[in-house]
Design goal:
Layout (H helix, E strand, L loop, with lengths): L3 H8 L1 H4 L22 E2 L28 E4 L2 E16 L2 E8 L8 E4 L3 E8 L8 E3 L23 E7 L4 E6 L4 H6 L4 E6 L10 E10 L18 E4 L10 E4 L2 E9 L5 E5 L4 E6 L2 E2 L7 E2 L1 E4 L3 E9 L3 E7 L24 H8 L14 H6 L13 E3 L2 E3 L5 E7 L25
Parallel strand pairs: 3-6, 5-10, 11-14, 13-24
Antiparallel strand pairs: 1-2, 2-3, 3-4, 6-8, 7-9, 9-10, 11-12, 14-20, 15-19, 15-21, 16-17, 16-18, 16-20, 21-24, 22-23
The structure holds copper (II) ion.
Length: 431
């Protein structure tokens, strides 16, 4: 069988290099060797792709964006504004968060190894802040640790960080000032450095996902920074399923997913239907001889993991944290265990005090999603599960999304819908 890549090579990259639908072709073309563009535009998550002037496949930040920049005398200049953000985790639940440039996580910073960057940081928060560039090798005074390497950035002030990116990789940024509060409110972002030399083999689809958790008690709107372990909102790029955007790829695309973790617990991130290798951490690249095949990667707190694989299996593949509570939403927490308890009689008595009370979970909790649909819950919170699939409820929320691998994809934009299974390839009921 001829693969798509072989076909493209055979037909000649030049022939196809103008097609926006075949971004990977341009990696092989002369266009890829042109100097970097003079300005970068802010791209919405699913529209990012290799442009004619870049030597890399732009990273897609699902539900997020990439920070624009301007070239000033050979320096790439970025501007981050630390500010309060009204954030929606999924329809039905909002919170008063803090972030950068109107969002949590902040926009992804994307540069090339060897670039000199100037990062302007303006503080529109009610208290002081700083930004630490996590994992990046830089002069000590640019490290952004309030009190240790610089005075704090007071409200209204703009401070400047300037350094040269020495190593390629997946890094992060976050405050090193009142961390417990500022990070609990959502202040963080990804910082991606592409290698100066185009990658071989090239990456066709490159995604960035920041893992985080929030404690937003039902009926409240401000994340609780005093919570240390018992969070109730577990997020991919500060969104919970089904509000998490799917990862859309073509069959046989070479895919990288960069995962950062600035929550307070480790997350084993699991991909269905594929085998991947961990190619890099925020400490550097892992030599091929030390990479082993995996389907789950533990992403420790305060670190990043890059995974790479060939998306060689068409379908809708779950991509999620393997801690089962982390694929549940707020109302799955701190509930009484009533499995096996016959609650007849009790239900009516409780209803006299709590109108609308319904007995929960006598046969397990699989019925809870349907119950939640017609049972008014407390204000500003979400039922423990709320996904819907082509075969019924997907009984998850939280850190869950779907890798959608398609043979005949015309565009990476938008959601291609549910996978249409070839006949005879779906589990069936014995009759
Ligand atoms: Cu987890």
């Amino acid at each position: 069988m001829i693969t798509r890549r072989q076909l493209l090579t055979a037909t000649g990259a030049a022939l196809l290099s103008g097609s926006a639908l075949l971004p990977q072709v341009q990696a092989h073309s002369a266009e890829a060797l042109r100097p970097a563009p003079l300005s970068g535009s802010s791209t919405s998550s699913s529209h990012a792709r290799r442009t004619r002037n870049s030597s890399y496949t732009p990273v897609v930040t699902p539900n997020g964006s990439t920070l624009s920049w301007a070239m000033k005398n050979g320096i790439k200049e970025f501007h981050l504004i630390a500010e309060p953000v009204e954030h929606e985790f999924a329809p039905g639940m909002k919170a008063k968060c803090w972030g950068y440039n109107g969002q949590t996580p902040g926009p992804t910073i994307e540069v090339v190894q060897g670039d000199r960057v100037r990062l302007l940081v303006t503080n529109h928060l009610p208290e002081h802040t700083t930004i630490h560039w996590h994992g990046i090798l830089l002069p000590n005074g640019m490290d952004g640790v309030g009190g240790l390497t610089q005075p704090h950035i007071q409200p209204g002030e703009t401070w400047v960080y300037e350094f040269v990116l020495q190593e390629p990789g997946t890094f992060m940024y976050h405050p090193h000032a009142d961390e417990m509060v500022q990070m609990a409110y959502g202040m963080m972002g990804m910082f991606i450095v592409h290698p100066r030399k185009p990658e071989n083999p090239p990456i066709d689809r490159d995604f960035a996902i920041m893992l985080h958790s929030f404690a937003v008690h039902p009926g409240t709107y401000r994340p609780d920074p005093s919570i240390m372990l018992d969070f109730n909102i577990w997020t991919f790029n500060s969104k919970i399923f089904p509000a998490t955007e799917p990862l859309v790829v073509r069959t046989n695309d070479r895919v990288r997913i960069r995962i950062g973790n600035l929550s307070m617990t480790q997350h084993p991130i699991h991909l269905h239907g594929h085998s991947f290798k961990v190619t890099r951490t925020d400490g550097g690249s892992i030599p091929p001889s030390a990479q082993w095949p995996q389907t789950s990667v533990p992403v420790p707190v305060g670190s990043t993991r890059d995974i790479e694989f060939m998306a060689n299996a068409p379908g809708d593949w779950a991509f999620h944290c393997h801690k089962s509570h982390h694929t549940m939403n707020a109302m799955g927490h701190g509930i009484p265990n009533l499995t096996g308890v016959d609650q007849r009689g009790v239900e009516e008595k409780i209803r006299a005090f709590l109108p609308g009370y319904m007995a929960m979970g006598e046969r397990g909790m699989g019925d809870m999603q349907d119950m939640a649909a017609h049972m008014p819950g407390p204000k500003n919170t979400l039922p423990m599960m709320m996904g819907k699939g082509p075969f019924g409820n997907i009984e998850m929320g939280g850190m869950f999304t779907i890798l959608k691998v398609r043979d005949n994809l015309l565009s990476y934009d938008g959601d291609p819908g549910w996978y249409e299974h070839p006949q005879g390839t779906v589990a069936y009921k014995l009759t």
